[in-house]
């Protein structure tokens, strides 16, 4: 079998500085790094950021005036004893720069000796040090130039391999997600204010005051219900954003689908032991294909060696994590008992009882070039005739997978709408926020103080998505994925 596809009531619109991050180095540091890729290239970009950035440029261009803010100028770069390069230099004055600090960019020739010479010259200057991984972006976040979701969008853009990934990352980096969460947090702030009014009324109210209190609670519940509907829709749409970013998990007929020899093929059962993984694009979305060991029914493992048993365990784990499971049946084994045994083996994955969504099941009649058909298949599963050796059969499988991926993970709208959830972290906090709103709606007699507390917790959850609370651990993980110079 092959498994495939696999807080306070301040305004939320206000961008705040995050200078209290403990992992930031001293604010007086000036950092430098190569921001473009290593290797021979026409142009290499060296970035300098911090209070001594302009002094560093002056030291490398003795006798020349500093260029005006955001004006590109040609300069000869020199160290203490030698000419390093003829470079295009730019200077960005704080706070109008990427990091919010004084920034200098040196656009040098991309030869290795040239780049190394410029970096060594910068390293020899006082008050300068080499940047840590992702430190330029971290400084931009600390200065309030980028929000947390915008930083995540930048990280996704740097890692984008497909057009949908690029489009989603650009929208997120441009602030689409931050604006959505700011609006939601603004609505929660208004709801919390209404809840505080109910607290002020107290329990012992009568007449017109009691009627007014009831009206406020009814309006509050209606607004909570409306917001919850929107958040529920975002959760429903979450697989699209996460799959675009992380890729759809796919496996099956690996060599044929990948259009190259990614796996050694043998007629013998038990040939595939480990889980083989490759990447490709299906309908413009990134996909990860996994070729796994076959599964056996209970009791058959006793006759297998330990390595094959481990392969089966890994196969089951890969299938459980997949978006689609491609179930390959040998067309030569078309008797009912063989098919029944095969489906008993896959049943724990296909028919989940743990509450998790089950992967979609596609039945493939493998070796279709050797036999005309399979006598019995499960009607509930889609069936695709394909062969691991026939190009037309493999093409049919790829077409079917592309259709399923596009239908499942592309927006149904003709105009692109950026998802509000692109990471498991976002989904976790939004789900927690929805649970708080459910608690408010489930009990119309809930004490106003508890209503206010649930709404506060909901606000905190949304704040965690955009970095308003509890950012340090998230940032440490996120910036570790950045390269030096970003």
Automatic annotation (TrEMBL):
Keywords: GTP-binding, Nucleotide-binding, tRNA processing. Residues 148-483 form the MnmE helical domain. SUPFAM superfamilies: Folate-binding domain, P-loop containing nucleoside triphosphate hydrolases, TrmE connector domain. It is found in: Mitochondrion. It holds the Pfam family TrmE_N. One of its GO terms (biological process) is tRNA methylation. It comes from the Eukaryota. Residues 251-337 form the G domain. One of its GO terms (cellular component) is mitochondrion. GO terms for molecular function: GTP binding; GTPase activity. Its main location: mitochondrion. Residues 30-145 form the GTP-binding protein TrmE N-terminal domain. NCBIfam families: PRK05291.1-3 (NF003661). Belongs to the TRAFAC class TrmE-Era-EngA-EngB-Septin-like GTPase superfamily. TrmE GTPase family. This is TrmE-type G domain-containing protein.
